[in-house]
C-alpha cells in the first residue's frame, strides 16, 4: 500500500497482492511499466530451505542482542559470490573481484534465498529485457 501511494500505483497489494497492481496485474495502474533482469541466481528447479521462524536462542536472547556486525568482503569471497569456477577465465575473474571489492566492501548475507521459492516469472506482465551472458551458468540460454 505504501509503495502504491508513494509511487503512484493504485491501492493494490503489490507483487502477488489480491487487490491488483504491482507485477501481478489487476485493475489498478501497474507500479512497473518495464523490467530489466540481469545477474540472477534464480533456478526454478531448486527449492531453498527456510530457516526456522524462531529458535531456542530467540526465546532466551543474551542481554546484549545487537545485530551481528557486518563482515568485510575479501578477494576470495568476491570470487566465490560472483563467479562460478570454470565459467570465466582467471584474468577477467581477478579484474572482476578487484572491482567487486571496491563496489561492495561488505560481504553479502545470503540468508533469505527461500524467497526465490515464491518466484513466478509467468506473473510478470510488463515488457521485460533479460540480460544473460552466453556462458552464464546461472542463466543458461539453452
Automatic annotation (TrEMBL):
Q: Where is the composition biased (Gly residues)?
A: 7-24
Chain positions covered by the region annotation Disordered: 1-24
What SUPFAM superfamilies would the database entry show?
Answer: alpha/beta-Hydrolases (SSF53474)
The organism's place on the tree of life at top rank: Eukaryota
Protein name per its UniProtKB record: Uncharacterized protein
Q: Provide the organism lineage as a comma list.
A: Eukaryota, Sar, Stramenopiles, Ochrophyta, Bacillariophyta
Amino acid at each position: 500500500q505504501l509503495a502504491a501511494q508513494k509511487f503512484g500505483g493504485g491501492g493494490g497489494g503489490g507483487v502477488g497482492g489480491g487487490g491488483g497492481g504491482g507485477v501481478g496485474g489487476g485493475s489498478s495502474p501497474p507500479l512497473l511499466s518495464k523490467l530489466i533482469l540481469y545477474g540472477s541466481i534464480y533456478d526454478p528447479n531448486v527449492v531453498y530451505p527456510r530457516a526456522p521462524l524462531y529458535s531456542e536462542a530467540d526465546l532466551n536472547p543474551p542481554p546484549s542482542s545487537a545485530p551481528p556486525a557486518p563482515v568485510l568482503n575479501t578477494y576470495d569471497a568476491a570470487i566465490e559470490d560472483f563467479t562460478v569456477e570454470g565459467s570465466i577465465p582467471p584474468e577477467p575473474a581477478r579484474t572482476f573481484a578487484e572491482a567487486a571489492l571496491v563496489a561492495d566492501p561488505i560481504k553479502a548475507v545470503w540468508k533469505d534465498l527461500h524467497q526465490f521459492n515464491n518466484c513466478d516469472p509467468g506473473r510478470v506482465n510488463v515488457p521485460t529485457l533479460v540480460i544473460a551472458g552466453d556462458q552464464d551458468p546461472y542463466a543458461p540460454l539453452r
